[in-house]
């Protein structure tokens, strides 16, 4: 018998691929891997939240619309199927005695089967609720962020436990910090060795940039990337050191000689600071087979930063959007009210490491314009004590200001293409082909 993939699932496979022989699926746009079914990938591509899968940040608009269409079509089919089943059941009931003469024993058997099925379903539901509450208590008691539940590792762990026999007992803390930790280290070492061995055939790209830790101390790191993946090579603090071109060249060459070997390097990528640019020329002179390129993500991020700094309308509009976000997420009751009107959709929060996230935050607010306008006009909003403060009244005024929404839509229309390209080039793997 020939196995046929359902039509809609077959179409979704055109935009993702299976990773190895396991149950992981990789998105062709954002390059992220998920331990999920192909059906759930529809929600990933459609940017639908609340389906236990991260939304795609790099999917083209046409593919997003296509995925949403498949979801809506599946929903309509489900409703139609349930309606037909109900109609079929009610229609056949009046003809049962005419078509089939069931004995009392058969009827009793069927009634008993239905009753047992209902009891089993109820028991399974209660057991799931108890398991869900146990996981919830674990998250709260150990101060674990709720979005960890979206982690593929968490999903895989739960799946592995459910596949085990009912008597499964978790490992002790001693086992976790000794044997299992060593096993995981061996697995990681093997993974890194596979990547390093691939450099002999394909070469690798060296990447270097600076960063600050939680104590605000400056560091510089070195990574190597190839078709097999990216690995961390080394890092050192730059506190008290002059980070000129000579220092950068010495650090990069030392890392290459210790971990990679010069003949395995084909390209070096760094940010656009003047010291890195000069270091790139020196490295190209010392290794003629290597070429140096600037980080595309850093270039685009600098462009966005210049736009915000130089254009007053952009700066003011983003500042107002940040005020809306900060006020709503500051108070629990205000946040609950927003989620009620937005159907649990969240406002994206800007991160400190990427300036583009300011525009993503603004875009998320603009997309919820109608819901936010209804919210500030509702009795529920007016009844909140926080909305009657100076800050609350200012936020209400911004949301009711037509000019804010007009400026926001104009800014997003201009900036969205830049942000989209930035998110594509900043994702894992070779992304130039998607630009």
UniProtKB/TrEMBL annotation:
<dbReference type="InterPro" id="IPR007021">
    <property type="entry name" value="DUF659"/>
</dbReference>
<dbReference type="GO" id="GO:0003677">
    <property type="term" value="F:DNA binding"/>
</dbReference>
<dbReference type="Pfam" id="PF04937">
    <property type="entry name" value="DUF659"/>
</dbReference>
<dbReference type="InterPro" id="IPR012337">
    <property type="entry name" value="RNaseH-like_sf"/>
</dbReference>
<dbReference type="GO" id="GO:0008270">
    <property type="term" value="F:zinc ion binding"/>
</dbReference>
<protein>
    <recommendedName>
        <fullName>BED-type domain-containing protein</fullName>
    </recommendedName>
</protein>
<keyword id="KW-0862">Zinc</keyword>
<keyword id="KW-0863">Zinc-finger</keyword>
<dbReference type="InterPro" id="IPR003656">
    <property type="entry name" value="Znf_BED"/>
</dbReference>
<feature type="region of interest" description="Disordered">
    <location>
        <begin position="77"/>
        <end position="98"/>
    </location>
</feature>
<keyword id="KW-0479">Metal-binding</keyword>
<feature type="domain" description="BED-type">
    <location>
        <begin position="7"/>
        <end position="63"/>
    </location>
</feature>
């Amino acid at each position: 018998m020939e196995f046929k993939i359902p039509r809609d699932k077959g179409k979704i496979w055109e935009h993702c691929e299976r990773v190895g022989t396991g149950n992981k699926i990789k998105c062709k746009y954002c390059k992220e891997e998920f331990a999920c079914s192909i059906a759930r990938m529809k929600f990933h591509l459609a940017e639908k939240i609340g389906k236990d899968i991260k939304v795609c940040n790099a999917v083209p608009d046409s593919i997003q619309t296509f995925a949403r269409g498949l979801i809506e079509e599946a929903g309509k089919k489900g409703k139609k199927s349930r309606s037909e089943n109900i109609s079929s059941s009610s229609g056949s009931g009046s003809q049962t005695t005419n078509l089939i003469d069931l004995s009392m024993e058969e009827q009793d058997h069927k009634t008993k089967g239905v009753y047992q099925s209902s009891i089993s379903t109820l028991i399974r539901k209660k057991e799931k609720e108890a398991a869900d509450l146990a996981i919830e208590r674990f998250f709260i008691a150990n101060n674990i962020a709720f979005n960890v539940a979206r982690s593929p590792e968490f999903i895989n762990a739960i799946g592995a436990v459910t596949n085990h026999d009912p008597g499964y007992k978790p490992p002790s803390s001693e086992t976790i910090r000794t044997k299992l930790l060593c096993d995981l280290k061996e697995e990681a070492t093997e993974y890194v060795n596979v990547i390093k061995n691939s450099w002999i055939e394909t070469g690798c790209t060296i990447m270097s940039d600076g960063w600050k830790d939680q104590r605000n101390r400056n560091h510089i790191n070195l990574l190597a990337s190839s078709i097999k993946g990216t690995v961390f090579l080394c890092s050192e603090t730059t506190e008290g050191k002059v980070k000129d071109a000579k220092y950068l060249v010495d650090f990069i060459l030392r890392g290459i000689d210790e971990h990679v070997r010069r003949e395995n390097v084909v390209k070096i990528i760094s940010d656009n600071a003047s010291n890195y640019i000069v270091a790139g020329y020196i490295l190209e002179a010392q290794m003629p087979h290597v070429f140096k390129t600037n980080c595309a993500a850093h270039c685009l991020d600098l462009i966005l930063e210049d736009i915000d700094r130089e254009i007053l309308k952009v700066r003011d509009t983003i500042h107002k959007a940040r005020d809306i976000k900060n006020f709503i997420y500051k108070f629990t009751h205000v946040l609950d009210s927003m989620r009620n009107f937005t159907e649990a959709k969240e406002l994206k929060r800007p991160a400190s490491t990427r300036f583009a996230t300011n525009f993503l935050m603004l875009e998320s607010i603009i997309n919820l314009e109608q819901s936010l306008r209804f919210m500030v006009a509702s009795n529920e909003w007016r009844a909140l004590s926080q909305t009657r403060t100076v800050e609350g009244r200012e936020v209400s005024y911004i949301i009711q200001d037509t000019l804010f929404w007009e400026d926001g839509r104009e800014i997003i229309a201009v900036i969205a293409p830049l942000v989209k390209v930035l998110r594509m080039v900043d994702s894992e793997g070779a992304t130039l082909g998607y630009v």
